[in-house]
Amino acid sequence: MSDRLSVFKTYKLYVGGKFPRSESGRVYEVTTKTSAADAAGKGNWLANAPLASRKDARDAVVAARKAFGGWSGATAYNRGQVLYRVAEMLEGRREQFVREVADAEGLSKPKAAAVVDATIDRWVWYAGWTDKIAQVTGGANPVAGPFFNLSSPEPTGVVAVLAPQESSFLGLVSVLAPVIATGNTAVVVASEKAPLPALSLGEVLATSDVPGGVVNVLSGRTAEIAAPLAAHQDVNAIDLAGADDALARELEIAAADNLKRVLRPQAVDYFETPGTERLTAFLETKTVWHPTGSLGASGSSY
Amino acid sequence: MASAFEYAPAPESRSVVDIAPAYGLFVDGEFTDAADGKVFKTVSPSTEEALSEVAQAGAEDVDRAVKAARKAFEKWSALPGSERAKYLFRIARIIQERSRELAVLETLDNGKPIKETRDADLPLVAAHFFYYAGWADKLDHAGFGASPRPLGVAGQVIPWNFPLLMLAWKIAPALATGNTVVLKPAETTPLSALFFADICRQAGLPRGVVNILPGYGDAGAALVAHPDVNKVAFTGSTAVGKEIARTVAGTRKKLTLELGGKGANIVFDDAPVDQAVEGIVTGIFFNQGQVCCAGSRLLVQESIQDELLDALKRRLATLRLGDPLDKNTDIGAINSAEQLARITALAEQGEAEGAERWSPACELPASGYWFAPTLFTNVTQAHTIARDEIFGPVLSVLTFRTPDEAVAKANNTQYGLSAGIWTEKGSRILAVANKLRAGVVWSNTFNKFDPTSPFGGYKESGFGREGGRHGLEAYLDV
Q1: Helix or strand (DSSP H, E) at B220
Q2: Which of A46, A160, B147, B250 counts the highest number of beta carbons within 10 A?
C-alpha cells in the first residue's frame, strides 16, 4: 500500500457558488511554511493555487452584488442557521483543516488542531450574533416630539476583505464571519503565502447552505487583487487586515473615490474573543421617523 | 385675493445683538489676531451689508490652536465625567438664555428666516448640549466597553447652512467624551461660532478646550492634515469629503463625514395630500433648500401627479420671500453670491436639458442674494437637476407607477442621506423604508431632527452618525 500514488487536489477559486480557475489561466506554487532561519528558504511543494487576476476580482464583485439582496433580505434567524451549518461542516472536515493549517503555518499537529478548534468556535460565536446585533446597536430614540423613531443597523453592501497574511484560517474566519453575519456579502482575498485553508473553506461554504455569491474567495497576489477592489465603484467597504502599511495607505486613498467604509489594519490577537467592532464596522444605521398621532404633544401634527 | 391676507411687516429687533466691528480667532481662551494679520469681511446675505471684520486663520494659527487643544486635553480628559457634564449643562443653559440674541445673529449672518433660527436652530442647539451633557458621566454604560477613552484633539470643519447647529453637533459630543476641539466655521458664517466662544468664557470652560478658527478652505485643509489632530469631523460637500478621506489615509486619525444628498420624497396615491404638500415644502424650502438632507427629488405616483402638483403650486404661491428678520418670512436669502450663482447655473441647465421650470409670482428684493422657490417638472433620472445636489430652493419632480419603481428611482443616486415616504398604508411604509438606501427615512413627515436620534448617510453621503448614543462612537477610542 505504501507505494500507492496519492491523488493531488486542484485548488480553485470560489466565485458565485462555483469553482472557476482564474480567467488568466495562471497559478502559483504554494509550499509549506519554513522558518526564516532555514537558509534554503523554500518549503515543500503543496499545490498550485490560482493566481487570480483583476478580472476575477471584478467577477467576484458582480457575484457578491447579485447575492446581496437575498442574503441581506433573509431573516437574521435564517442567517444564524446557515452560519451554524457551516460550523457543523467545518467540524466534519476538522482533520483536513488541521493538516492544511499545519502545512500552511508551519505548526505541529496539536497546535494546528488548537487553531482549527478556535476557528470553528469563532464561526459559532458569529453565528449567534446574527439575530442579536440589531438589538445591541439599534433601538427606539426618545425624541422630544410626537414621533415613533427607530434606529436599526443594516448591512453596508459588498465588502472586500483582505484576509490576514499570517493567520491563514483563524484570522480568515475572524474577519470573514462578522462581515456576512450582518448580511453583507464578501469578496475575500486569501493569505498570499498560505491560501489553501481559505480555498478549502470555499468548498465547505459551497456544501453548506450559504447561497452562492455571498462569499467569494480569491487567491493570488494580495496587492494585485486588492487594487481593483479598493477602486471598484460597486464595492461598499474594505477590510485592510491583510495589507501592510504602505499598501493599506494606497488602498485607503483609492477607497475614498466612492467613500468606501475602510477598516484599517490593526494588531489583533485572533485567539482572543473579539468585540463587536468587526460587526459594526460594516453596518449602516438607518433611522425611521413616523408621527405617533399624539396631537396633544409638542410639534407639528403631520 | 392677496390683499385680504396681506401682513404688515413684523421685523424682529436687531437691538438684541451687538456685533463688534472686528473679531479675532479664539485660541487658548483668548481672542487673537491671525499670525499673518489677515482679515475678511462677513456680510449679511439679505442686504450685502458688511457685518464685521473677522481674523482669517492660516496654517500657523491652526498649529497654535492644535497645540492649545493638546495642552488642554490632559486636564480636560482627566476630569471626572460629572464635572465635564456640568460645564456642558452650563453651556446649554447660557444658550437658552441668549437664544434670541443668537437667533437674530444667525439670521443676519446666514440669511435664513428668523422663524427658523428662533424655532428650529436654537432650540436644537441647546438640546444637543443638554443631551450630550448627560452622557459625559455615563460613558461606561454607552455600550462601547467598560471605560472608553477619548481620542485627543478633534479637528472639526463645519458648513454655513446651519452654523450654530453644526457647531453643537460637533462640539457637544466631543467635549462630553473628553476630547478637546479646534473648530473651523465656514467663511461666510463665522459670527455665531465666535459668539459661542464668548459663551465658553461665560461658562468658565478651561482655556484651550474649545478653539475657534474662522477661515477659508486652506485653514480647514491645514487642520485636517495637522499631524497632532486625532479625530477629523467634517460636514460639507462630497467632493471635499473625498479629499479629506485621501488626506487622512494611512494615518490613525478617526474620520466621520456628513456629506451631500439628493433625498427622494416619495408620494403614493393614497397619501394625505395636504400633509404631503406641507412635507414637500418643508423638505425642499426649509432653509432655502440649503440642507444636505433636503427632499430635492419629488417622486410622485403618476395617478395623482396633477392633483398633487396643483396643490403644491397653490401652496408655493403663499410662501413669503423677503426680509429674513421678518417673523412672517418663509424664504430668506441664499447664503452667498457664490451659492446663488451655483443654484442659478444648475437651474438654467435644468431648462436647457428640457425640464419645465415653474416659480410662483415672486418679487425679489433689489439687494442681497435671492432665488425664488422653483419647481421642475418633466424631469427624468438622467437630468443633471435629478442627479446633482443643487443646495437651493429647487425641486425636481419625477413620477413612478409602482412601489418597486419608486424604490429603484429613489436609490438611483450616489447619495444616501435622507428619504421621505407619504402613504396611509403602514405595511407599505415599512416595506419601502426597508428598501431605501438612506440613513434617515421620514415617513409622513420630513426634516425632523432630535439630539437623541442618529443622523448620517449611506454611500457617498458619508460615514459615521451624529446624534444619539451612536454619535458618541465618533469621539471614543473604540
Answers
A1: helix B217-225
A2: A160
Output DSSP code: residue A2.
T
User: Integer distance in angstroms from the first to the last C-alpha of chain A?
Assistant: 82
- Find the helix or strand (DSSP H, E) in which B231 lies: strand B231-235
Instruction: Tell the residue number behind the cell numbers 452618525, with chain if given.
Output: B465
The helix/strand/coil state of B419 is strand
Q: Which residues of A touch B441 (CB under 8 A)?
A: 286-289
Any idea which residue has 447660557 for its cell?
B94
Asked if B143 reaches chain A (Cβ–Cβ under 8 Å), the answer is yes
Under the banding of pLDDT at 50, 70 and 90, the label for residue B385 is: very high
Using CB atoms within 10 Å of the CB of residue A10, give its burial: 0 to 12 exposed, 13 to 18 middle, 19+ buried.
exposed
Q: Which of A233, A226, A118 is nearest to A167 (CA)?
A: A118
Q: Convert the pLDDT of each residue in B203-225 to its tens digit.
A: 999 999 999 999 999 999 999 99
Query: What proportions of chain A, in percent to the nearest 5, are helix, strand and coil?
Result: 40, 20, 40
Question: Looking at the predicted complex, does its ipTM rise above 0.90?
Answer: yes
User: Is B243 annotated in the active site?
Assistant: no
Four-CA torsion B290, B292, B293, B295, nearest 10 degrees: 50
What grid cell was written down for B243? 479629499
A24-48 pLDDT tens trace: 999 999 999 876 555 556 789 999 9
**Helices then strands (H, E): number in chain B?**
16, 17
Q: Detail the DSSP E strand segments found in A103-231.
A: 139-140, 147-155, 158-162, 185-189, 215-218
- DSSP lists the bridge partners of residue B247 as none
Torsion of CA B356, B361, B363, B369, to 10 degrees: -30
Q: Residue B224: name the closest of B184, B166, B258, B173 by CA.
A: B184
Give the Cα separation of B136 and B322 in Å (integer): 42
Residue with the three cell numbers 473553506: A201
Query: Within a 10 A sphere around the Cβ of B215, how many other Cβ atoms?
Result: 28
CA-nearest residue to B429 within chain A is A290
Grid cell, residue B343, equals 443654484
Size (chain B), residues: 478
B225 in reach of chain A (CB within 8 A): no
